[in-house]
Amino acid sequence: MSFETAVNATLQYEGGYVNDPNDPGGETNFGISKKAYPNLDIKNLTTDDAKSIYKCDYWDKLNLDVLPEGISSCVFDSAVNQGTKAASVLLQRAAGVKDDGVIGPMTLAAVKAKDQVHLIRDFTVQRILMYSKLPIWSIYSKNWTQRSIDVALTARSFL
């Protein structure tokens, strides 16, 4: 799956400007938070700005071009919503390797060796479990769960 396909899918969930008092990221636009980017004018962020940030700080940082099609979109969407380290850990747990947060040769080998339908399923389960441990789970549980399932179903359609 290409970056453009993945980012466009994720942007369906990460709409425009919001300043939700329950969101620990605070002020966000297209999912880019003021907390993560304190020097950025979040309110006036454009879609192209967001895509540029997502390409450099998420897709390229995690080297998602080397992952099989499908799981790359799951990991990307998780990285956007849960952070790059969390997304790496979730992938490792789903692949059955040590979860050190570094997608290296061992993780890549395990990811490629695993049945991709099962990998996407296991990743989604791990993702929802991680969400469920957050103190704001009761506020966002329905949306996070549905998003995780929708992303997984879309990912499976690329297999």
Write a structural description:
With 159 residues, this protein is mainly α. It has one domain (3-156): Chitosanase, subunit A, domain 1 (Up-down Bundle), CATH 1.20.141. Helix content is 58%, strand content 3%. It contains seven helices and two strands. It has helices spanning 3-11, 47-60, 71-82, 84-95, 105-113, 116-132, 137-156; strands spanning 28-29, 32-33. The protein has a two-stranded antiparallel ribbon. A hairpin with a 2-residue loop joins strand 1 (28-29) and strand 2. Helix 3 (71-82) crosses helix 4 (84-95) and helix 3 packs antiparallel against helix 7. It is globular, with a radius of gyration of 15 Å. The mean pLDDT is 95.
Q: How many beta strands in the DSSP annotation?
A: 2
Name given to the CATH homologous superfamily: Chitosanase, subunit A, domain 1
The largest sheet is: 2 strands, antiparallel
H and E string? HEEHHHHHH
The CATH topology assignment is: Chitosanase, subunit A, domain 1
Q: What topology, given as strand order, has the largest sheet? A: 1-2
The residue fraction in helices comes out at 55-70%
Instruction: State the name of the first-level CATH class.
Output: Mainly Alpha
The rounded distance between the terminal residues' Cα atoms is: 10 Å
Assign the structural class, choosing from mainly alpha, mainly beta, alpha/beta, alpha+beta, or little secondary structure: mainly alpha
- CATH architectural grouping: Up-down Bundle
Low-confidence stretches: none
Mean pLDDT, to the nearest integer, reads 95
Number of domains: 1
**How large is the radius of gyration?**
15 Å
Q: State the shape.
A: globular
Strand content: under 5%
